[in-house]
Design a protein that fits this description.
Elements: E1 6-8, H1 10-14, E2 17-18, E3 21-26, E4 29-32, H2 45-49, H3 56-62, E5 75-80, H4 87-102, H5 111-132, H6 136-162, H7 169-184, H8 188-200, H9 225-231, H10 234-243, H11 245-257, H12 266-285, H13 290-313, H14 330-336, E6 340-342, H15 348-351, H16 357-362, H17 368-384, E7 391-393, H18 394-412, H19 424-428
Parallel strand pairs: 1-5, 6-7
Antiparallel strand pairs: 2-3, 3-4, 4-5
Helix pairs in contact: 5-6, 6-7, 6-13, 7-12, 10-18, 13-18
Subcellular location: Membrane
Pfam family, one: Cyt-b5
Protein name: Delta(8)-fatty-acid desaturase-like
Length: 432
């Protein structure tokens, strides 16, 4: 009977917002996930970020319908009394349901197959060119091809981390391990640790790990004297830093895997990293001299810079905010902090589907082959609720990003700004 239900208020739910006392609500029911948070496949960080509030929209975005049956064991017996669902959330939930009924989440196309075949072909050409050719130009081309291979490998790892691209969960996990750890040297465990938190807290200055680039880059200004100097030149250093940005990903992988944090499949991840740091140095050592080895590594890193630039273009010029995300404006936060990159359909392979950044953030389980199809629908939904739908060409997005970095750099010269803390080590040891 309706009158027999037990209720708590939104304010009472907010009190349960600590790792030792973690409650959430989904579609009006309140769940206690304190003891289970550490076992959450998507990591505990995203649960901590949204603790003590309604998480229905995020749950719908991230979980297939089969996940609902597991919620029962966490039910507290309480229902949320006074939570008001926004009109945009109602439309988002309706749209997600329609996509499910149309089978869009299950229709993956043949993108994964084509990507795997292209990676294997590129890997063969790189190894063959290094071992069989004595041409400097061929070796340079192999370095560039290796960079493209890493970009496509990262997309496979990304896709398999968000949804099942293979025929089973087991094969999906193998794809993550091979594409991430073994092929690119970047731990899939580190990627999950940061990427899920990025999706949930998109463009939160203190909760989104993908914005934690201090003391090198700043989109908002709170830094120490060292960071102030670096940030004041960031519009000049942006592209050079992107060229060697891969080094930071290697560092972050090692920092996480050898930290005291609880890491799923730590041993397996470390073994995968060891595979990469065996085959890659061995391949480089097969080049005839140190100048060609340096050229080969730099060329491969420079090509991956295009992917690093793309990731920053998607969010650097979006709106930022302080604090954790809140459940009742989850959709709005995604639209405000996200920028799409407009391009022709023949470029979809190169961008990995992530040029449709807003569509991906709203429906992260949606296969990349479906993102272009749903783009007009998402645009109409944004228009209906007077929300931004930002889409720029790659060139315009670069110009806008550099302009934003330059404006922040000019403000960094203002010595009247506070210098509250040292961020140098924080920048190295951040979760992003």
């Amino acid at each position: 009977m309706e009158g027999e239900k037990k209720y708590i208020t939104v304010e009472q739910l907010k009190l349960h917002n600590k790792p030792s006392d973690l409650w959430i609500s989904i579609q009006g029911k309140v769940y206690n996930i304190t003891d289970w948070a550490k076992d959450h496949p998507g990591g505990d960080a995203i649960l901590f970020n949204m603790s003590g509030q309604d998480v229905t929209d995020a749950f719908i975005a991230y979980h297939p319908p089969s996940a609902w049956k597991y919620l029962g064991k966490f039910f507290t017996g309480y229902h949320l009394k006074d939570f008001e669902i926004s009109e945009v959330s109602k439309d988002f939930r309706k749209l997600a349901s329609e996509f499910n009924q149309l089978g869009l989440f299950e229709n993956k196309g043949h993108v994964a197959l084509y990507s795997v075949i292209s990676i294997l072909v590129m890997l063969y050409l790189v190894v063959y060119g290094v071992l069989k050719s004595e041409s400097v130009l061929v070796h340079f081309g192999c370095g560039c091809l290796l960079g493209i291979l890493w970009v496509q490998g990262a997309y496979i790892g990304h896709d398999s981390g968000h949804y099942q691209v293979m025929s089973s969960r087991r094969y999906n996990k193998i794809a993550q391990f091979l594409a991430g750890n073994c092929l690119t040297g970047i731990s899939i465990a580190w990627w999950k640790w940061t990427h899920n938190a990025h999706h949930i807290a998109c463009n939160s200055l203190d909760y989104d790990p993908d914005l934690q680039h201090m003391p090198v880059f700043a989109v908002e200004l709170t830094f120490d004297a060292v960071a102030r100097f670096l940030v004041s030149h960031q519009h000049f250093t942006y592209y050079p830093i992107m060229i060697v940005g891969r080094v930071n990903l290697f560092i972050q992988t090692f920092l996480l895997l050898f930290s005291k944090r609880s890491i799923p499949d730590r041993t397996l991840n470390i073994m995968g990293i060891l595979v990469f740091w065996t085959w890659f140095p061995l391949l480089v050592s097969c080049l005839p001299n140190w100048s060609e080895r340096f050229m080969f590594v730099l060329a491969s890193f420079a090509v991956t810079a295009l992917q690093h630039i793309q990731f920053t273009l998607n969010h650097f010029t979006g709106d930022t905010y302080l604090g954790p995300p809140t459940g009742n404006d989850w959709f709005e936060k995604q639209t405000a902090g996200t920028v799409d990159i407009s391009c022709s359909s023949w470029m979809d392979w190169f961008y990995g589907g992530l040029q449709f950044q807003l569509e991906h953030h709203l429906f992260p389980r949606l296969p990349r082959s479906q993102l272009r199809k749903i783009s007009p629908t998402v645009k109409e939904l944004c228009k209906k609720h007077n929300l931004p739908y930002k889409s720029l060409s790659f060139l315009d997005a670069n110009v806008t990003t550099i302009r934003m970095l330059r404006n922040a750099a000019q403000q960094a010269w203002d010595m009247a700004l506070p210098v509250p803390k040292n961020l140098a080590w924080e920048a190295v040891n951040t979760h992003g």
